[in-house]
Design brief:
CATH architecture of the largest domain: Orthogonal Bundle
Structural class: mainly alpha
Strand content: under 5%
Number of helices: 10
Number of strands: 0
CATH topology of the largest domain: Arc Repressor Mutant, subunit A
Length: about 200
Amino acid sequence: MNEKELIIQAQSGDFKAFSRLIESRKDKIYRLAMKLTGNRDDAEDIVQDTLMKAIDAIDKFRMESSFGTWLYTIALNNIRAHAGDKKREALRPIDDYLPGSHSESTSKELFDWGDPHQQFERKRLNDMIETALAELPLKYSAPFTLRYIEDMPVKEVARVLDLSLSAAKSRILRARLALREKLSNVFREKNNERL
């Protein structure tokens, strides 16, 4: 049975059809929530809230996008409502990262950290990336996570986040630049500790 048939059955009240629709997506939503909140309990709550809202709203789903995109949108709205941007730091404008910028903080060259697999174990690097990602505002960490961790095409990221394609690209770029700077600083500090 294809997705469209399952959706039609779920819209008519068939809970088994709904369960089949969410079966392969539940873990992905949990991973997304974990990446963006950094907290297992919050991630579990977000998954539950997402599924409950999807059950309540399945009859309003018009099949204009894929079911997965619709479910991700609900999950991201729950993450936004749950986490907020209070504890996250603001990002500098893109111009500050460009060569020739007169910004004080970019006057130092970014540390060339080369191949991170040669310097750190994969697990340690992933932990550092997750920590740095958790410090970004949600409006940047969400598109980055969808693009690079969930391997979603940029067009789909834009659709899920209800952004223009150029806004999605811009937010992904700003997140990449901010993460690069944060990780360069971490690697520079680790390198200095060794000396």
